[in-house]
């Protein structure tokens, strides 16, 4: 959710940049800063923690003058909320300035290499690694653009980076790697802008250019030049955005659901921000009000939710029981509130809700409170009723507004939030040591980049699948263990927006009823990543195939066996088994979306459905 704004022109760069950052405040942040350059005044860096008003106050006392500069609002990932960790960051010479959105997955490796070379670090951030790498390549290349190109090629993970050097005072350079951070460029009458999102610069121009993965742009007083990280030149189209807040929010996507599917890499970055400490092997949930002693007393957890959020609760059961060794029961909130549950003083209620206003979930939380049981809300909407009722504290998704009725980015963010909670619980209860937690943190950090890979790869594949299946009237989704809830979620998505009847089942139950439905007209989506129960899923797929079902298999990259058994395959990168649902869910979202588009359905507002169910 970090905000990026850059400007070069004839106006006060400070005013343009701070105004743009204010328009990005909805993204969430915990510190802010600007770097402004003037030939006479030199490079002026102003940073502060907290709200932008603190930075404005700082600038009013210490003005920053110039017509070129960069600004940033940070949400902490590596390193705490301090002025030293706030962006922009500089290299050791103080001549290069960098702002970034994303996570450098291999920052520990890069930082160790730089420390061995004697490079001094001033912050705890992964961004400072970029500044020092850029300085190293600048010395070798002698120019900022090729230096940033070489730097980006060393980074792993999704990152948007903007850099400036005082030795080239007429330009800044921006690059995008992966999909965890957007970069939009704008031009108007001799001035040029860069931002992480459209609203930051709409006051100045509606003619925008969106950088693609592995694009690098040189933004100078003379114009904008875009190339690829391999050095080849490329032209990106200029998109004219109408002065319409809804259209502007949707950008160049046809539907909000499509936009929100593409926002998942960024959302997965944001849900991790400030919560993981690689070096200490720890998870810190900033708003959780339960300390280690409270968490050690928990012997049973009840997860409660509705719809898609209930599927997240089912996945959470696998995560919490395996990592923290605490028994978990999963309830529909609409059933939980009426069955007079006996909770017990050693219990905890874990509520999942995107809006924080779902009436049945709120009633379940109130019932827990009446029995003296604390509740924790995994919730997207900040300050919502669920966040206020949760006496154990909220765990915010920080996924940003989700407009499409069918949840996508909120769902995968719920899964990651649940994983963080499971690790936090394991940490408090001593079921995992820091050394055991670190590989899980690394796997979490790698998720955004893997999600971006899936979206780019699977979207055209699913568009092709719709040609085969858009006339289907039924579909079956099968999965096992932690991927069984994803089968339920995939079926729900297809039902919600394409109006195709679909059922999700645990694959081991197929012979107890659903197998009767299988014929040559039935698409059967089988979630079969390579894990400990892969052979069982292979057996289920062969049983479907023997009855002429049309198998669409979700497989792991490198699996060369199932493509010989299934009619179609969609592959996802490997990860820790308990995190596979985050990745296997995304192809099913895309499949449902492309099917709905092909069938001419109202994707964002499907019939009879509402985004938040606030009445029974």
Automatic annotation (TrEMBL):
InterPro entries assigned to the protein according to its UniProt record, in alphabetical order: GATase_2_dom, GFAT, GFAT_N, GlmS/AgaS_SIS, GlmS/FrlB_SIS, Ntn_hydrolases_N, SIS_dom, SIS_dom_sf
This enzyme's EC code(s): 2.6.1.16
CDD domains tied to this protein: GFAT (cd00714), SIS_GlmS_GlmD_1 (cd05008), SIS_GlmS_GlmD_2 (cd05009)
One Gene Ontology term of the molecular function aspect: glutamine-fructose-6-phosphate transaminase (isomerizing) activity
Pfam families documented for this protein: GATase_6, SIS
Record text on subunit structure and interactions: Homodimer.
Cell location: Cytoplasm
Organism: Candidatus Chloroploca mongolica
Catalysis: reaction(s): D-fructose 6-phosphate + L-glutamine = D-glucosamine 6-phosphate + L-glutamate
Enzyme class of the recorded protein, top EC level: transferase
Keywords on record: Aminotransferase, Cytoplasm, Glutamine amidotransferase, Repeat, Transferase
HAMAP family recorded: GlmS (MF_00164)
Domain SIS: residue ranges: 291-431, 465-606
Function, in words: Catalyzes the first step in hexosamine metabolism, converting fructose-6P into glucosamine-6P using glutamine as a nitrogen source.
Identification of the protein by name: Glutamine--fructose-6-phosphate aminotransferase [isomerizing]
Active site positions: 2, 611
Residues covered by the Glutamine amidotransferase type-2 domain: 2-222
Keyword Lyase found: no
């Amino acid at each position: 959710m970090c905000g990026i704004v850059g400007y070069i022109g004839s106006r006060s760069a400070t005013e343009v940049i701070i105004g743009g950052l204010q328009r990005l405040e909805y993204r969430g942040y915990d510190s802010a800063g600007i770097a402004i350059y003037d030939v006479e005044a030199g490079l002026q860096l102003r940073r502060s923690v907290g709200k932008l008003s603190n930075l404005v106050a700082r600038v009013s006392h210490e003005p920053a003058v110039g017509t070129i500069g960069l600004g940033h609002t940070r949400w902490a990932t590596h390193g705490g909320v301090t002025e030293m960790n706030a962006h922009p960051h500089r290299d050791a010479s103080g001549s290069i300035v960098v702002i970034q959105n994303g996570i450098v997955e291999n920052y520990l490796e890069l930082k160790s290499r730089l420390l061995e070379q004697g490079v001094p670090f001033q912050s705890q951030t992964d961004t400072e690694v970029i500044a020092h790498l850029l300085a190293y390549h600048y010395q070798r290349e002698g120019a900022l653009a090729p230096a940033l190109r070489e730097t980006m090629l060393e980074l792993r993970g999704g990152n948007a980076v903007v850099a400036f050097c005082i030795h080239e005072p007429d330009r800044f350079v921006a690059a995008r790697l992966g999909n965890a951070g957007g970069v939009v460029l704008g031009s108007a009458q001799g001035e040029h802008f860069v931002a992480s999102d459209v609203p930051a610069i709409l006051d100045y121009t509606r003619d925008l250019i969106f950088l693609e993965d592995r694009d690098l742009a040189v933004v100078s007083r003379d114009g904008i030049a875009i190339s690829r990280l391999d050095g080849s030149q490329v032209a990106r189209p200029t998109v004219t955005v109408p002065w319409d807040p809804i259209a502007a929010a949707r950008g160049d996507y046809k539907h909000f659901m499509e936009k929100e599917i593409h926002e998942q890499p960024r959302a997965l970055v944001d849900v991790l921000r400030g919560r993981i400490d690689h070096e200490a092997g720890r998870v810190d949930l900033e708003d959780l009000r339960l300390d280690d002693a409270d968490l050690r007393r928990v012997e049973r957890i009840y997860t409660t939710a509705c719809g898609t959020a209930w599927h997240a609760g089912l996945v959470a059961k696998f995560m919490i029981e395996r990592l923290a060794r605490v028994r978990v029961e999963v309830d529909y909130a609409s059933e939980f509130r009426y069955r007079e549950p006996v909770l017990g003083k050693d219990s905890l209620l874990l509520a999942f809700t995107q809006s924080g206003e779902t009436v049945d979930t709120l009633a379940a939380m109130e019932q827990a409170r009446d029995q003296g049981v604390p509740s924790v809300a995994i919730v997207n909407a900040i300050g919502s009723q669920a966040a206020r009722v949760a006496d154990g504290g909220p765990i915010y998704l920080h996924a940003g507004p989700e407009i499409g009725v069918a949840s996508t980015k909120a769902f995968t963010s719920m899964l990651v939030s649940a994983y963080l909670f499971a690790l936090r619980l394991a940490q408090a209860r001593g079921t995992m040591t820091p050394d055991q937690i670190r590989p899980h943190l690394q796997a979490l950090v790698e998720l955004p980049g893997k999600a971006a890979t899936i979206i780019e790869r699977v979207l055209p594949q699913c568009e092709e699948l719709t040609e085969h299946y858009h006339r289907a009237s039924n579909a079956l989704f099968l999965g096992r263990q932690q991927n069984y809830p994803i089968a339920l979620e995939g079926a729900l998505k297809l039902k919600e927006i394409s109006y195709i009847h679909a059922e999700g089942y645990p694959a081991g139950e197929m012979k107890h009823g659903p197998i009767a439905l299988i014929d040559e007209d039935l698409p059967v989506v089988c979630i079969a990543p390579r894990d400990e129960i892969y052979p069982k899923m292979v057996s289920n797929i062969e049983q479907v195939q023997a009855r002429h079902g049309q198998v669409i298999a979700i497989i792991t990259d490198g699996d060369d066996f199932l493509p010989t058994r299934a009619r179609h395959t969609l592959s996802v990168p490997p990860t820790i088994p308990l995190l596979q649902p985050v990745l296997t869910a995304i192809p099913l979202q895309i499949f449902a979306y492309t099917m709905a588009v092909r069938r001419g359905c109202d994707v964002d507002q499907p019939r009879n459905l509402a985004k938040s169910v606030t009445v029974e």
